[in-house]
């Protein structure tokens, strides 16, 4: 069935197509995160082998986000204009191949130049991955009716938790039984295989879809957008939560390696990240129930996001003072559980604020949200280099969390502003 609106007409997925694309996008997001988190898993091993300092490791870990930041807005814009599935496919080729060939880049350059080439390779990988989420939210906006979009996008983004767990389980197993080279090659090969699958279904979808007709009314009114406080609340809240998530994602393997070396790496890299899966679905169920029982979208988004910030902030304080590995794992698990609620709040907020420009707005939001990926992760490395204190790192994250929670509570909204 073809659906018309005042600027273009799109083919909406059937129930069967929703199921297929749901599995495809869920698995793709899982592989995006498996690719992304494989390097933090391997940095303690490669760093020891290569003699990297904490600053060197911080530069390599943060370099991914330099590239990730650059392509968010462009990815959303191109997806809104050309179709999310096309941009998604092109991007997948890039991040799949750059993961597959990273071992060659690490091995085939001298120690002096290796850091620079690894940084460049990670930037390229990040640039291609930066397109993934904006193209997904654009695709869901183009192919789903409005009432289905937020729930579907929340579901497919849960792949971030699945991918992180995949790194912790499969990645840790391969690392312990083979080499760090094999970890990257396994994830790279599976990612390339997924790209072929996406290309097939993208071609099939394009054959059944109508041609999207664009007019000037489809352009993002950026000047109007930046005058709206809810837009800035969304950006700031996302950036503050990402600061917590990205710093922990990048540095936790090193934290446990340095502080509690007796803890098995697979436990550290799997158990905490398992917690985000149930919290993602719990957040989604609570969100849907709140709206059905009469709560406004604004109130619902704030309740779910505040739950996220509160769980993270409280347990960051506990993590800063603990000296027991079991407690450290527990607190980290609760922090990661808190991040799962983010998927049903700020992550879907662009669809609330600007439903006709969700890909572009999400791209802008994720551009700002990616800044902690390179700034926060690199700053954590500097703090460790000069203070040798993980507690200082955790307190810094706590302060940023409080700022984000306050701003979103005061200015956040679930109403359309465009």
The gist of it:
Keywords: Membrane, Symport, Transmembrane, Transmembrane helix, Transport. With 418 residues, the chain is mainly alpha-helical. The protein is built from 19 helices and two strands.
Q: Which features does this protein show?
A:
disordered N terminus; 418 residues; 19 helices; mainly alpha; 2 strands; MFS_Na/Anion_cotransporter; two-stranded antiparallel sheet; symporter activity
Task: Furnish the topology, listing elements before pairings.
Blueprint: E1 2-4, E2 9-11, H1 15-50, H2 54-70, H3 72-82, H4 84-100, H5 102-107, H6 111-129, H7 132-143, H8 146-157, H9 159-177, H10 180-208, H11 222-225, H12 229-259, H13 265-274, H14 276-292, H15 297-321, H16 325-341, H17 349-353, H18 358-387, H19 390-411
Antiparallel strand pairs: 1-2
Please, could you describe this protein's structure?
By secondary structure, the protein is mainly α. Helix content is 81%, strand content 1%. It has 19 helices and two strands. A two-stranded antiparallel ribbon has the order 1-2. The longest helix has 36 residues, at 15-50. The chain is globular and about 55 Å long. The chain starts with a strand and ends in a 7-residue tail after the last helix. 53% of the residues are buried.
């Amino acid at each position: 069935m073809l659906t018309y609106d005042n600027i273009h007409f799109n083919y909406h997925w059937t129930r069967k197509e929703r199921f297929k694309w749901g599995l495809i996008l869920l698995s793709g997001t899982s592989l995006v995160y498996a690719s992304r988190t494989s390097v933090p898993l391997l940095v303690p091993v490669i760093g020891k082998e290569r003699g990297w300092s904490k600053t060197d490791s911080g530069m390599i870990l943060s370099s991914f986000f330099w590239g990730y930041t650059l392509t968010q807005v462009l990815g959303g814009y191109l997806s809104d204009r050309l179709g999310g599935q096309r941009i998604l496919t092109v991007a997948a080729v890039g991040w799949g191949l750059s993961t597959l060939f990273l071992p060659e880049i690490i091995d085939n350059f001298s120690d002096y130049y290796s850091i620079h080439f690894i940084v460049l390779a990670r930037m390229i990988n990040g640039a291609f991955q930066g397109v993934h989420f904006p193209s997904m939210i654009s695709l869901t906006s183009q192919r789903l009716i409005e009432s289905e979009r937020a729930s579907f996008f929340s579901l497919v983004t849960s792949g971030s938790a699945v991918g992180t767990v995949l790194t912790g389980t499969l990645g840790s197993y391969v690392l312990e039984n083979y080499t760090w080279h094999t970890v990257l090659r396994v994830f790279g090969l599976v990612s390339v295989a997924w790209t072929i699958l996406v290309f097939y279904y993208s071609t099939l979808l394009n054959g059944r879809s109508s041609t999207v007709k664009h007019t000037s009314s489809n352009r993002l009114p950026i000047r109007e957008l930046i005058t709206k406080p809810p837009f800035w609340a969304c950006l700031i809240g996302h950036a503050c939560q990402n600061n917590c998530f990205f710093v922990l994602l990048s540095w936790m393997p090193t934290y446990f390696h340095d502080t509690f070396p007796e803890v098995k790496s697979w436990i550290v890299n799997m158990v905490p990240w398992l917690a985000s899966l149930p919290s993602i679905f719990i957040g989604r169920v609570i969100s849907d129930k709140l709206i059905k029982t009469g709560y406004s979208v604004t109130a619902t988004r704030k309740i779910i996001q505040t739950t996220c910030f509160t769980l993270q902030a409280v347990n960051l304080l506990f993590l800063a003072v603990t000296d027991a590995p079991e407690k450290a794992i527990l607190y980290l698990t609760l922090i990661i559980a808190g991040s799962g609620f983010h998927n049903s709040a700020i992550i879907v907020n662009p669809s609330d604020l600007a439903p006709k420009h969700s890909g572009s707005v999400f791209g802008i939001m994720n551009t700002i949200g990616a800044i902690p990926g390179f700034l926060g992760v690199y700053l954590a490395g500097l703090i460790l280099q000069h203070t040798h204190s993980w507690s200082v790192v955790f307190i810094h994250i706590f302060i940023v969390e409080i700022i984000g929670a306050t701003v979103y509570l005061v200015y956040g909204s679930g109403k359309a502003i465009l």
